[in-house]
Amino acid sequence: MKNRAVIIAFLVMLAASVSLLLLPADTESVRSENREPQKMPYLNADTIFSGRFAEEFEGFLGDNTAFRAPVTKLARMLEEKKGLTLKKGKVIATNKDIGTGTTQKQTLLLANGAIMEMFIRNGEQEREYAEAVNMYAEKLPQNIGMYSMLIPTQLEFCEPIYKNLQDSQLDAVNSIYNGLNPRVRVIDAYGALREHTDEYIYFRTDHHWTPLGAYYGYREFMNVSGGAAADKDSYEVNEIKNMLGYLYDRVPEADSSIIPDTINWYAVDPENKIKTVMHDVDGNGEITDYRGVMYDRAKANYLFFFGSDHPIVDMINTENPDGKTIAVIKDSYTNVLAPWLIKSYNRVILIDPRIYTGTLDTIIKEFNPDDFLFVNYIFTTVFKDYTDLMKGIVR
Asked: What is the pTM of this model?
């Protein structure tokens, strides 16, 4: 009788799942997460035997069901119930999407009033990431300076009871740096941040660093590249209070231990001398323009910086007409770094491989950069789809 009850329960759940797929999809709840619903994956021998179809199909089902918002809320409640509660914190399981259309399992730690991602190394992907950077080193003209900056997350600088729950981010950074082409100069953002862990260098409810944390990364980059860094203390600091970031939406709503954030942003352009334009690539591979801003004052979260991610962000500092041009292959961590970079360059070109569909040849021809910088936070090194997108630009 017990087996029969289990079978009946399974069939009821299966029927309910099919019913949800037959009803109109709740796509608005997906777009509220600042992304588009995942499309049906391609079905062929490569996707089946590689396991890619199964992984992407799970994300497709999750994004294209009816009543997704209440179902997601219920799922979070269940995750909270089965979460691992520590003496001074809690570990919960959830999903993560870094904007490439692939959803993967993610583990979060709630402690010290913050939400922190827990890092799991992937040695194969570390080698793939280094290989991706090396592909650029082999193709870019030798007169272009090349740099790489990998950024750790805040859990790496917590007390051992928390830090030791994850793999060493420092070991992962060193592994990748050791595999880079000798022409790529590495930036020790890890060491620069470690010196300021008593300061507000990471958000509590978001996985990004703050403008102050980004400043220390910027200053270290300028030390290595030989340029002059701006003095942060010479700019007015403004506040956006009570920010609840990306990670806050991943945890149960009932959790009240999390402390909201404040965005302390620096007015680096009081006289509007920095011009910002966004670019895209049309069907013919040609660069097109659309309007953009460095600080989007309509946003009260991390989207305050440029409003979102874009295929290409083009910043020109008219106060530094004789300065150099730098191109940056970046993830969203760079959005808060760019306002500092533009203070030391005439032109900063940000290229997001998750959205940019053009080639490296187009970047070289259109912008003729003097320097080329890779800026990504450590979690991008475990995502194969992100590394593949980096490689796809070099074609």
From this structure: 0.78
